[in-house]
Amino acid sequence: MYISYGNDPKFTSREIIEEFDKLARIAIPHFNILFDFKSLKIGSDVKQFMNNMKDGDIVLLIINEKYFNSPYCMEELVNMFEALHGRIYPLFLDSGRSFYDSRVYSTILMEWIQDKNI
After folding, report:
1. Regarding predicted confidence, which is higher, 4 or 113?
2. How far apart are CA 13 and CA 81, in angstroms?
3. Residue among 20, 82, 3, 55 at smallest CA distance from 109
4. Rounded Cα–Cα distance for residues 57 and 53 (Å)
5. How many CB atoms are located within 10 Å of the residue 114 CB?
6. How far apart are CA 58 and CA 89, in angstroms?
7. What are the b/e assignments for 86-104, b being 16+ CB within 10 Å?
8. What angle do CA 93, 98, 24 make, to 5 degrees?
9. Burial class (CB in 10 A: 0-12, 13-18, 19+), 9
10. pLDDT by residue (tens digit) across 86-100?
């Protein structure tokens, strides 16, 4: 399982990921959870890590306002969107916007595809 997230200023996403990883290791010891600050070392190829996400069985997206404003997050999402159809599980953090309506994030994703040439 890969986790993709937007790093917010209060590190709320990281706290959720660390707690999830800790609990998952207790409940399912053989289950491998990969995310950048656990898996990447200084000098690691971030692009390769992002490309590997689409080969994962499951990707958990922790979506907040930062997610949709991050070029790295959006590149990850665009790269894995078609490859992982049906295996992407979003977790929405309160951001003051209505991300619960799939039309909102579908529209944002299409804007990134068109405007950023990802």
Report:
1. 4
2. 21
3. 82
4. 9
5. 9
6. 8
7. eebebeebeeeeebeeeee
8. 25
9. exposed
10. 677 777 776 555 555
Both tokens of 72, joined, read 């790295």
Backbone dihedral angles phi then psi of residue 2, each to the nearest 5 degrees? -105, 150
**Of the options 3.40.50.920, 3.40.50.720, 3.40.50.2000, 3.40.50.10140, the CATH number for the domain spanning 2-115:** 3.40.50.10140
- Helix, strand, or coil (residue 73): helix
Instruction: In whole angstroms, give the CA distance from residue 79 to residue 104.
Output: 19
Return d(Cα 87, Cα 92) in angstroms, integer. Answer: 16
Asked if the model's pLDDT at residue 26 lies above 70, the reply is yes
Nearest to 17 by CA among 32, 4, 28, 29: 4
Residue type, 99: F
Beta carbons within 10 angstroms of residue 60's beta carbon: 20
Identify the H or E element spanning 101: none
- The stretch 72-82 carries a mean pLDDT of 78
